Amino acid sequence: MVGNVGISPKWALAWGASIGAVYVVWLLPINHLAGTSGLWWIGDPGAHVSALRAYLNDDWHVPILYTRHLNYPEGINAAFADVIPLVAVPTKMFADLLPPDFHYFGYWLAFSYVLQGVAAAWLLHLMGVRDRVMLPLAVVLFLLSPAMLFRVHAHAALTFHAAILIALALYFLMTRPGAISNRSLMLSLAMLACVALLVHPYLLAMVVPIFMVGLVDRARLCDHGMSAQAVVLLGALAPVIFIMWAGGYLTHGVGQLSGGGGFGFNSMNLVAPLIGGHFLDMPSLQDQSGLYGTWPVPYDATGGQFEGYNHLGLGVIVGLLIVVMTQWRRLPSLVRRHAGLFLLMVGFTLYAISNKAFAAGIGLWEISLPQWMMPLAEQFRASGRFFWPVGYLLVLCMVLGLSALRGPSLGRVLLAGLVVVQVADTAPLRGMTREAAALEAPMQMNDSWWQHQAERAERIYLFPAFGCGAHAFEDIVPLQRLAAFSATPFNTGLIARGVGNCVDKESVLAEGLMDGSLYVFLDDYIDETELVSRFGTQVEQRCTPFSGGHVCTP
Description:
4-stranded mixed sheet; two-stranded antiparallel sheet
């Protein structure tokens, strides 16, 4: 490795935090970080902000993350609306002291990038990269992750990739003889697992398997008994299970109403790691649907493979080629030493591809899974995300390979050149992120009339509900925001796990138009003629047309 003396651990972490802070300020406008840009009104960000507001405006319930203000009357677990429970619960304790439009998602983006720099610096320093030039350059590569950047405009919670880097660091730490005691390891694993769960369940599903194979490799490499490692794992998972119970993940986490397309739909295309940047953006292999038609997104063979956006970046790809060509003889011994981690990364890759594999638009295979296996596979429908740990491990291997080249100057020059290439290759993603962050707030359902009606209502109903025919962004998000900021229960919402079914959602109409309720009917679902046939003269007295449907007021 380069630089056996080099930079100290404290300075490495300071460098990581500083570079991360500079990068996020360069990347995003201040108004977006402060939570006031128009992007927080629309799409997934708008849904997350309004879900948070619905949770904050509701009373406390048991379990602690439950709210009836979304998906009324069944309610939901707010964790499945991407509110980041780690911050949402303490924020709710002080909600009365905060501005009525406050949210923390912009600050979370800044925190995620700063911690990404810190975690990358720790991982690199732990692995022996301590050169004063190479370590900062390598930190920049981790910050330039296209997969992380792709989430900035959509899922603030899923930018917390630092959890993956910390999990990898703990893996390498626990597989070194004498580096960490079982007790300290148990506490470290428990803390990271709990944080990952309280940020987003997908992150927990990525870090816990890394812990598990790490404990197996620890027993094999460090003469620790498997029984002792099993105790470590059980001790680490015990608080996670308690939080899942107390937070309602187990009792309020399974439902019938959701917007996912199922396992095999939100998967990773095989070309995704190679294509998707400025230099490797092939028009013939680009998704042209919706918002993503303007992004360098690889071919979307299912309609949902944008979830599997995993471009490594040209700089990383070239660096990996250099390392493989110069140090291929070392690969078998590394695979043997870290067999558990290697097999897990293969498993993550196969799960990301799913049982329906595509290379661009060409279907390669489709495997019918056993009936008992499908419910397990579909717990994480957006399986394409599971390539994230693989991508970060490849970046780490590339940096370590360059640092092992003869002569530190060669590694520095090569890494500096690759960082420049990576910056240029990810430029379209940064440009689109800045453009999205500069959007103005839309006026849809944002005027005084709508606000007055929402404030008068005791509950708001939308027909059809989410998962029953309504469009997520066009129909649901504006009304969800209106209801949430008016502290009015809403019968649906843009949520990952919605309890109930479409028949139950419509059954409320059998009681007629009830006083105190605001009804919104979309024309695609029920037109004016059908409204009259259902509710008679009430329609003339209480219903008003708007673009897209009719609203019937209290």
